[in-house]
Design goal:
Brix, rRNA primary transcript binding, 392 residues, rRNA processing, three-stranded antiparallel β-sheet, alpha+beta, IMP U3 small nucleolar ribonucleoprotein 4, IMP4/RPF1
């Protein structure tokens, strides 16, 4: 090695050999840091959503610069805080840990719920297969072709089944376990940039559901709406859509895990269209559910009736959901007794028709990932002949 030749050790220090393991570890570290930073910002937004309006302001300071020698260097962004009536609350990594625990808990509860749903669906499918074999044996008919290979095994398992245990536990026990114990908390909002008629319709829906609250949509995203509703204990989120000023869609999303039902609105008549109606009663109404005899019909009936609290016996307010040919007619009345035999009905409004076209198992922001429980297929050859909400 000559006098002017560079040292091999120096070259190795300046240009170290590639280390794939170290690079992968650094890449994973950067990804984890980015994920924690996103969780931190989401947690900040959740804290902001919990605070009352005009009482809290998020402080965001731009990165400052300072002179070091003769060169300019950027100083990192200052700490982020909340300015409220009590002063400034600073965030630390403790808040990130709290956010991580909250997300882990929500993910765990969601996994447990999906596991129970999967087990229930498997048990229901097995029970339907056994019922088909039982009916074929009782009526002395041929066993269905798809069940002939396992007919003997199904017949053997029928000996251990007894009557009276159908429908005891199902997903309704998990989704609506507090129904009848605690009053539902309903939040009503609209699509973005609503017209004046859609705002009127949202106000009238607020009068339909006792204790409901209406929220202006503004520029809020669906995910932010759902997170704010979960943080404030909202049980159901209703979103109304329109087309050229006419309400055409209603989404009912049950929180925190679902389901989410999608309805089409038609023949909408609002209270604002009828003069001299007076004030609407806000008492807890009695419900009339008519024509929901199929399994899907009972599912839709549960989604709709659990939006209302338990009424008192002396309530004079009645709300009707009447199904006919899969069109659900909504009517709102109050009644009074004229004598010991006759009752006088007065329609309060609004009135409209609902047409179900989809049910998803998740909440509203999980539209891209949630499983579809049921979907209406209008372009099949027998779509105009079939009814789904009634067994007739």
């Amino acid at each position: 090695m000559g006098v002017g030749s560079p040292s091999p050790h120096r070259n190795w220090v300046q240009n170290p050999p590639p280390n794939p393991g170290k690079e992968a570890h650094q890449r994973e570290t950067y990804q984890a840091f980015d994920h924690l930073q996103q969780l931190f910002h989401d947690h900040c937004n959740a804290l902001v959503a919990k605070q009352p309006a005009n009482d809290l302001e998020v402080i965001r300071r731009a990165p400052a610069t300072r002179t070091v020698g003769k060169s300019w260097r950027k100083r990192g962004p200052r700490r982020r805080g909340l300015r409220c009536a009590s002063g400034i609350q600073r965030f630390s990594w403790t808040h990130v840990e709290v956010a991580l625990r909250m997300l882990r808990r929500e993910a765990r509860l969601r996994r447990e719920y999906l596991y129970r749903k999967a087990r229930e669906e498997a048990e229901r499918t097995a029970q339907e297969r056994k019922d088909k074999v039982r009916r074929a044996l009782e009526e002395n008919r041929l066993i269905p072709t798809e069940l002939r290979r396992e007919a003997l095994a199904l017949q053997g398992s029928l000996e251990f089944d007894d009557a009276g245990g159908e429908g005891v536990t199902n997903h309704v026990d998990d989704e609506y376990r507090w129904a009848g114990v605690e009053d539902p908390k309903v939040m009503i909002t609209t699509s973005r940039d609503p017209s004046s008629r859609l705002k009127m319709f949202a106000k009238e829906l607020k009068l339909v559901f006792p204790g409901a609250q209406r929220m202006n949509r503004g520029r809020h995203e669906v995910g932010a709406l759902v997170r704010a509703c979960k943080a404030n204990g909202v049980t159901d989120l209703l979103v109304v859509h329109e087309h050229r000023g006419t309400p055409v869609g209603l989404i009912v999303s049950h929180l925190p895990f679902g389901p989410t039902a999608y309805f089409t609105l038609c023949n909408v008549v609002m209270r604002h269209d009828i003069p001299d109606l007076g004030t609407a009663s806000e008492a807890k109404p009695h419900l009339i559910m008519h024509g929901f005899s199929s399994r899907l019909g009972k599912r839709v009936s549960d989604i709709l009736r659990y939006l209302f609290p338990v009424p008192k016996d002396d309530s004079r307010r009645v709300i009707t959901f009447a199904n006919q040919d899969d069109y659900i007619s909504f009517r709102h009345h109050v009644y009074k007794k004229t004598n010991h035999r006759n009752v006088e009905l007065t329609e309060v409004g609004p009135r409209f028709e609902l047409k179900l076209y989809m049910i998803r198992l998740g909440t509203l922001e999980q539209e891209a990932t949630a499983d579809v429980e049921w979907r209406w297929h209008p372009y099949t050859n027998t779509a105009h002949k079939r009814v789904f909400l009634s067994a007739e």
